[in-house]
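Dear colleague,

Thank you for sharing your sequence with our group. We've completed the structure prediction you requested, and as agreed, I am returning the results in plain text so they can be pasted directly into your records. Please verify that the sequence below matches your submission; if there's any discrepancy, let me know and we will rerun it promptly.
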Amino acid sequence: MTDRLAAIQQALDRFQRDEARALLKEELKENPSAAAYYLAAQAALSQGDRVSYLKKALEINPEYRLAVDELAEIMPLEKAEGAPTVEPVASPASKRSEIRLASVGKRWLAIILDGFIVAIATVLLLVAGGALAPLDAAMASADEAIVSEALSNFQSNTLTVNLLVSAIYNVALMVWFNGQTLGKMMLRLRVVKKRGGRITILDALLRNVFGYMISQIFLLGYLWALFDAEKQTWHDKMAGTLVVEERRITR
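Please find the predicted structure tokens below.
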């Protein structure tokens, strides 16, 4: 495998499809091999393009096993080379060989880890900002009304800071680390766009701020993933994303 093909495979393994497609454009122009067309099929934006690239790979090398097997899986009723008798059909839970959907259990564990990190950051910010001082003063006064008011203010401030930290943490890391937070990194999970491409800041805001608020209504949005064919929560559906297992890169 050439250096560029290896770089394309690494980009696909990391779900960096925009980068893979950019490299493939150069590779197909300079060296249109069966291997390059096969990788182009893995980075394709549509099922039609995927089939087209696989067929081109087989035109160059009719015995290219990976392309033969994948095309047979997509079009099992094809009888003549280059002449399909049926249109390719993708199932609801598409059998894309490069994607393995994350289990709901792993996703919940990642959420707990991220929540713990956000909680620590929230406490540190509250302490640094002096939010505990009014509460300490109220406690020292031993006046029940003052203590009650100070406690109410502290809870309100804590909730506000926690929500801001959570939004900044999830959005910033999702964008910077291509669909990963620290919790997802620990469990080798990644959020990817269902139709390819990197997570943008608008995707991250829609999924991790507005989407989270909808999904947290009685946790129904999270529980939905238990019954969904693609294990999508409501916030995944809003942003058009999937949560997948990150493959280990093999050389």
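Summary note from our side: DSSP finds twelve helices and two strands in the chain.

Kind regards,
the structure core
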